[in-house]
Design brief:
By secondary structure, the protein is mainly alpha-helical. It has helices at 16-25, 36-59, 62-90, 106-116.
Amino acid sequence: EPIDDTEAHASAYVSFPTAVKLAFKNYFNFSDRSSRSEYWYFTLFMILIVIGTTFLAALMPSEVFAIILPIGYIVCLIASLSLGVRRLHDTDKRGWYILIGIIPIIGEIFLIIMFALPGNIKENRFGVKTLGAE
C-alpha cells in the first residue's frame, strides 16, 4: 500500500505524486536512502516531461525553447542524480557508483540493474529503514 507521508518514506512503497515531491524535496540530499518505487516513479515522471517538452517544442518559438530547455534540464538533472545516489545507498552501495553510468552501454546497464535491486530491509550505513520491506 503506498504511503503519502513524505517524512516516513525510507525504503517504502510510495505513490507517483509522493515520489515526485520527495525527489524535489530532497533535491540536494545525497546522503539518505530512497526506495525502488520512488526512483522508478520519478523516472516515469522524467519520461513524461521529455514527451511533453517534445510537443511543446513544436508549439514554441525556437528562441524561447532554447532558453527554457537547458534550465529545465539542469533542474531535473540534479534531482535525478541525488535520487540515483540515494537509491544506491538503499542497496548499501556507495553513491560514487553513479559515475559508472559514464561508461557507454555497460555502465548504464549496470546502473539499471543496481536501481532495480531491492533495498536492505534493515538499517545500513546510509540510514534506517523505517517501514517494512517492499
